[in-house]
Inverse folding.
């Protein structure tokens, strides 16, 4: 449980943020310049805030009123920086063990071998950081932070400096990170796909303020937050179950919204496992009658639950499909032509090829009910 | 021709001893000063900076004379040190070492300061988040990263000490076997009839010693540079 209440002035920018999260992976989400990095720097102890009260599992680490400021080396808060920050004069092995040496033996979270296996970096141990690729550097940086046995792991856009191929290489490790280590994570990002895949809780920031906090699926389904999240990538995040694999057409059938969703084949998922699906609003079409003679494989029944604010020619809808929310992005013109209003029964049409590796992730965490319960299934 | 007379040999030995002492003893305060000037934020920093670099721009004779006034037998610092700690600088080889240290200090500090300025402080923050307290951060991150600067500064300061003449001769004179360093000896030999050969021998030695120091420093810097590399 982390509780943060911060007020800090940086030149003309004012950070005034408050949030609390019990989530295992909490995303600090917002556009560049919204104050996310400053906020994690304050949590990590890299910046001394003007006014703040921060506690971690009831343990106060900053309280400006009572002049408490625990220095960063005694906070046991790990930090994975955007650019890795590996020590250039040490080998990968020495980098990994750096924080381990400063941790009392009894408290150590894991041994080198476990972390190395978790992150798949065994072949890099004797190399030096400068000879590593961006993705390898980030994995080593994550391992180094974990071996210091943190109570909380801060990750500041760890994928931002990587290309798509490198991101795809690291994402699976990040998905497993909490389940394997049980270290809660605060993940800073401005990428909807990343957050949709990784975060259980979202804290949405804009202009140094927190505008919303809640379970990822709830926040992603809120139309009023779309302007703060991201106009292009906005869309609902749902949990679905793997029902069957179609060998012939290389597809996988997922069960959600009381219906079936065909997506490109998810080879590594066995039947019955939960997967997380990010359905981008712009990939959803609306029909008032059951469509026929259509190439799209996915047709889900629902009703219009809410119409969002008009944004230029565009308007976002929230549909209620068998208890789950799906966002759809239409033109204002289509909304009028179809006569859509709250309660109108509709069919949502979703193209199978609209799904890619980025929009399909691991399932919501099952270990503790808190976050999963927030997602209607 | 290449056999040294006892007097010449004494000058060479003295010079090496004086230079080593000057360099080694000025290293810790030099590092502290470099850290202070690079990282510190305090009133009067530019004045302190000026004082440290003064020996670089003052005529060496003036520096030597100031040392004589301060550290001479009757100088305020000299009298205090002699009475309380039994350390005497005036007309002793220790005085020559002090003069060399003062003259080499700006070079030592400058090289280390540039090195400290250039390291990525974000790495120190990273070490802190991993549980290292400021002392450990300095020992395990800062120090290894500024090692090339420390080596460069040390060699520069040693070379400066080997060549130091004006401040030394002004402060501690030119006493054979006590304060007559290599440059003082060369100067003395050029002033006496028939001293050319001795002066030439010592000149060759001066070149060999200085050149070796330079080559060794290049080699060490290369090895250290290879080890540290640049994160790209």
């Amino acid at each position: 449980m982390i509780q943060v209440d911060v007020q800090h002035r940086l030149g003309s920018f004012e950070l005034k943020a408050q949030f609390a999260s019990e989530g295992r992976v909490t995303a600090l989400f917002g556009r560049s310049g919204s104050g996310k990095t400053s906020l994690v720097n304050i949590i990590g102890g890299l910046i001394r805030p003007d006014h703040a009260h921060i506690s971690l599992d009831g343990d106060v680490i900053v309280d400006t009123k009572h002049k408490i400021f625990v220095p960063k080396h005694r906070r046991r808060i790990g930090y994975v920086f955007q650019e890795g920050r590996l020590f250039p004069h040490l080998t990968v092995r020495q980098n990994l063990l750096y924080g381990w040496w400063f941790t009392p033996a009894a408290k150590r979270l894991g041994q080198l071998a476990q972390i190395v296996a978790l992150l798949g970096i065994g072949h890099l141990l004797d190399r030096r950081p400068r000879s590593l690729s961006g993705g390898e550097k980030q994995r080593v940086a994550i391992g180094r932070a974990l071996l210091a046995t943190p109570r909380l792991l801060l990750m500041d856009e760890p994928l931002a400096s990587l290309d798509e191929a490198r991101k795809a290489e690291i994402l699976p490790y990040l998905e497993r990170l909490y389940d394997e280590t049980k270290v809660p994570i605060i993940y800073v990002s401005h990428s909807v796909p990343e957050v949709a895949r990784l975060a259980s809780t979202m804290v949405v920031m804009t202009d140094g303020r927190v505008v919303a906090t809640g379970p990822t699926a709830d926040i992603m389904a809120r139309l009023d937050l779309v302007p703060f999240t991201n106009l292009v990538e906005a869309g609902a995040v749902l949990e679905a179950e793997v029902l069957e694999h179609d060998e012939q057409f290389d597809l996988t059938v997922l069960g959600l919204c009381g219906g079936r969703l065909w997506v490109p084949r998810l080879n590594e998922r066995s039947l019955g496992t939960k997967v997380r699906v990010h359905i981008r609003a712009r990939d959803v079409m609306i029909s008032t009658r059951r469509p026929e003679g259509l190439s799209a494989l996915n047709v889900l029944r629902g009703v219009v639950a809410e119409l969002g604010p008009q944004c230029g020619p565009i308007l976002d809808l929230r549909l209620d499909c068998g208890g789950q929310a799906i966002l759809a992005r239409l033109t204002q013109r289509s909304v009028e032509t179809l006569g859509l209003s709250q309660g109108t029964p509709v069919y949502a049409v979703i193209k199978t090829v609209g799904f890619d590796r980025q929009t399909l992730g691991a399932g919501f965490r099952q270990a503790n009910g808190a976050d999963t319960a927030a997602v209607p299934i | 021709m290449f056999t040294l007379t006892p007097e010449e040999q004494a000058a060479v030995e003295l010079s090496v001893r004086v230079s080593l002492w000057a360099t080694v003893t000025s290293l810790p305060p030099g590092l502290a000063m470099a850290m202070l000037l690079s990282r510190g934020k305090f009133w009067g920093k530019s004045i302190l900076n000026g004082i440290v670099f003064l020996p670089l721009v003052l005529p060496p004779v003036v520096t030597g004379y100031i040392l004589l006034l301060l550290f001479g037998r009757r100088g305020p610092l000299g009298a205090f040190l002699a009475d309380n700690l039994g350390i005497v600088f005036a007309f002793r080889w220790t005085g020559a070492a002090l003069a060399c240290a003062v003259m080499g200090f700006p070079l030592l500090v400058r090289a280390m300061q540039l090195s400290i300025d250039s390291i990525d402080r974000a790495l120190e923050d990273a070490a802190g988040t991993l549980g290292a307290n400021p002392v450990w951060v300095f020992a395990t991150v800062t120090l290894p990263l500024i090692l090339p600067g420390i080596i460069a500064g040390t060699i520069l300061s040693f070379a400066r000490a080997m060549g130091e003449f004006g401040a030394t001769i002004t402060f501690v004179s030119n006493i054979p076997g006590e304060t007559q360093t290599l440059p003082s000896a060369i100067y003395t030999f050029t002033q006496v009839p028939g001293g050319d050969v001795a002066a030439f021998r010592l000149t060759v030695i001066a070149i060999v010693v200085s050149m070796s120091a330079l080559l060794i420093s290049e080699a060490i810097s290369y090895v250290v540079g290879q080890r540290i590399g640049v994160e790209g």
The radius of gyration of chain B is 20 Å.
